[in-house]
Amino acid sequence: MWEGRAEIEVSPSVFLNAHQALQRDLTVLLLRELSARRTQTVSILDAMAGTGIRAIRYAMEVPNVQVVANDLSPEATTLTRANVSTNGVAHLVSISEMDAVDVMWSHRHRFNVIDLDPFGSCATFLPSALATIAPGGLVCATDTDLQTLLGKTTHSHMQSYSQYGALPVSAAYSKELAIRIVLGNAATVARQARRSIRPILCTALEFFVRVHFQVLDEPHHCLEVPLAILHQCLRCAYFAVHSIGQKDGGADIAATCPICSSQLQIGGPFWSGPIHDENILKQALQHAGQLGSAAKLVESILDESADLFYYSLPQLFRPFKIVVPRLSVFRNALMSLNKTVHSTHLEATAFKTNATALEVYSVVAAWLRLYGLPDAIPVPPASVTFAMSSALQTDIEMSPPVKCTLEHVWRPPTRLQTEQHHEGSRIHVYEASADAINSALAETQANDFVVLHGNKYILPEPLRLPPNTSLHGSHSGVTLIGQVVVDAPNVSLFQLHIHFQVTDLEKRKHPLLITAKNAHVDCCHISCGRHASALACIGIADGASAKLNASEVVQGPQAGIFVGGKSQVEIHGCTIHNVSGCGVDIQGGSFCSIVDSRIANCRKSGVFAHAFAELEMRNCSVDANGMAGVEGAFTTQLLNILSRGKKGGLLVHSRGNVMEASGNVFTRNALAGVDVRGTGSSGKVFENHICNGRASGIYISDGATACIQGNIIVGNKRAGIESTVEQDFESCNTLDGNGVSLLM
Fold first, then answer.
1. Could you give the CA distance from residue 56 to residue 427 in angstroms, rounded to a whole number?
2. CA atoms within 13 A on the CB side of 629
3. Does residue 384 carry a pLDDT above 50?
């Protein structure tokens, strides 16, 4: 693979996150500026080098450097050595095979830059880096366990406190708080070594926090660390920050929320100083070169203010169930009160302001008054005028949409029943007991298959199949009640109903768990009881590969199918419906292909491909799901029908990419048929039919970009295409019968 100027060979046994290229670009940008400020060679330690991609890029793209690429894994150092040779930088990169902590202490005060990119938290390595780096050096550290720092569960609170000595809170600004918790821990640890930190560039993208800070030697009396705690309401968006170590720091601490009278949650302590160095970042932009995405991110960071934390506009108005004002409208209202308002690169629909929480809610109260809710919150409404009041854009007249009358019907393929080819023996089980199944499985040789003839088999323990075997139902009524685990390769399941019923188990399970290669599930029915202690109906994890064919998945408590841990899954001719979470939930760098399948009536998105997961869909029906039809980071959509999604048809955000969406039908969605939002998100939307939506056909917003050509967009209530970026959409798309053709 290529990244920057480097060509890297990868290996399954050596970790590399190819999706963190932007993070590596940012560090290259900063190191170029650091190198420009020094006359001497910059000495860099890549403490956990993996494939060597960081070390090699630093050597090739940053002038005047010497790099040590270290890793404890022999496989990693062997691969790094080969990659260093391939790229011709052996004179700039030396290889070390040591523990990361040991290599830092064995070269104390030698390195001007220490780069820490562990799997998980960086807290374990920060004390060594802070104590051993050369004075004035730069520590670059990654924490890939952002979910812990976001504080969404009780366990995450305990984990964050044990790692960083701080409590997170679940709030709109949790990403910024995560950054500040890491910095607060670093500053506290540095103080113990009689040092201080100065943050240069800190961000949180997808699932990781990345901090860059300078480490300075300071006299003991100058080591005052700017720390604070905060109080966050458990119901609304109110929060208050209280500095630690100031005489009046706790004078205004309220017992309950002044907005909704709910309890307040405590977060911190955290770093309350600046998290960027504006002067260095401005200088760094001069060295951007080909690092366009990194430069754009730095530019958006420079547009931010130093105000602590931010407000999410949708979360501000969520309790009131009314139309939310445009971000620009709300910003202008706050600015009319002589308050500063800035965007944040961490959240597309959020803003930073020097207004207090009560002042922000006074503008909320003014908006509520427009909607006949003057007493919804106990805050006097601000004297502001909204430039575009109740209809958001009163100066634009919306025509009644002319509905598309074409019939968009998805026709499922002919039911597929794969031919079963077996070279081994048949072992028949007529007794309806788990012991009978286990006895038969114990007798199997390679390529044998066990045929079940009973109706109901109760599995008191998880049923595990040996490698290279198959388990068949002789008729469609064969039911296994319990859990089936496929943790051996080359296992097939055919014509079985696997049902997980209500149990008293505290630990939740997947009724069907696949953790091995080359699993086949054909013509099966996987279901859960309504209150079963289950996760997804099917869990596929730990680098497994599986093919699901002509099967039905129903009533998963959290998801229909969960794919994680860099697994590879093909879903063909399946039906997934009536799930409490997502129909298909794809995480952890996994790949999922869904063909000729129907996903419907899920309470969340029909399909959700998280950051670093990849999704391909062809000729599928995604209908009547509680959130978006398809919500994805990296997705290809071909010839599908996405209909009646409550949060739209196709939703891409968080720097996601619609690699191609063509030949699809997006119809009768409650929000936009195609919605690409947020800085860094992009898409190619070609030759789709987008009709009869209750909002706009296509919505491009908050810094996202999209190539939109050859689409037929008709009968949408709001606009054919709504975009915050002005482009010539009309000449290359058919826009007819919408409220307005274009809205920019």
1. 56
2. 30
3. yes
pTM for this model (two decimals) = 0.69
Residues 140, 116: contact at Cβ < 8 Å?
yes
Q: Are strands 208-217 and 195-205 parallel, antiparallel or unpaired?
A: antiparallel
- Helix, strand, coil tally for the chain in percent (to 5): 20, 35, 45
Which residue reads 């002044």 in tokens?
Answer: 258
Question: Biggest alpha carbon distance in the chain?
Answer: 83
Q: What is the mean pLDDT of residues 241-265?
A: 80
Distance CA(458)–CA(438), nearest Å, equals: 12
* Overall residue count recorded for the chain in this entry: 744
* Domain 2-220+274-301: CATH architecture, name and number where available: 3-Layer(aba) Sandwich (3.40)
Across 32-48, average pLDDT: 93
- Interior angle at CA 228, CA 226 and CA 231, nearest 5: 165
Closest by Cα among 491, 482, 533, 480 to 514:
491
Q: What percent of the chain has pLDDT over 90?
A: 59
Q: What pLDDT, in 10s, does the model give residues 555-593? A: 878 889 999 888 999 999 999 999 988 999 998 778 999
In which residue are the tokens 């296994």 written? Answer: 480
- Pick 310 or 349 by higher pLDDT: 310
The pLDDT tens digits for 265-321 are 999 999 999 999 999 999 999 888 878 888 888 998 999 999 999 998 888 888 887
Q: What single-letter amino acid sits at 187?
A: A
What pLDDT, on a 0 to 100 scale, did the predictor assign at position 602?
A: 94
**Under 8 Å between Cβ of 658 and 682:** yes
Alpha carbons 293 and 291: distance in angstroms, whole number: 6
Residue 392 φ/ψ region, left for φ over 0, alpha for ψ in the -120 to 50 degree band, beta for the rest: left
Tokens 């100065």 belong to 198
Phi then psi for residue 634, to 5 deg, are -125, 115
220 touches 192 (CB < 8 A): no
Residues 459-471 pLDDT 10s: 999 999 999 999 9
- 3-state secondary structure labels for all residues of 65-79: EEEEEECCCHHHHHH
Residue pair 553/560 in contact (Cβ under 8 Å)? The answer is yes
Sequence ranges of the domains in the chain: 2-220+274-301, 310-395, 424-626, 648-744
Q: Do domains 2-220+274-301 and 424-626 have the same CATH topology?
A: no
Q: Which amino acid is at 683?
A: G
**CA-CA-CA-CA torsion for 348, 350, 354, 360, nearest 10 degrees?**
160
| Separation in Å, CA 94 to CA 99, 244, 712 | 16, 44, 57
* Cα–Cα distance list, 674 to 638, 660, 713, 721 (Å): 13, 12, 11, 9
CB 281 within 8 A of CB 302: yes
Q: How confident is the model at residue 395 (pLDDT cuts 50, 70, 90)?
A: very low
What pLDDT sits at residue 394? 40
Q: Identify which of 533, 473, 464, 524 has the alpha carbon closest to the alpha carbon of residue 498.
A: 524
Helix residue ranges per DSSP H, 303-410:
313-317, 327-335, 357-370
How far is it, in rounded angstroms, from Cα 600 to Cα 573? 14
CATH of 424-626, one of 3.30.360.10, 3.40.50.12780, 2.160.20.10, 2.60.40.2550: 2.160.20.10
**What angle do helix axes 21-37 and 292-302 make, rounded to 10 degrees?**
80
Check residue 187 and give its pLDDT: 95
**Which H or E element spans position 708?**
strand 705-709
Q: For residue 64, which phi and psi values (nearest 5 degrees)?
A: 60, 50
φ, ψ of residue 550 to 5 degrees: the values are: 50, 40
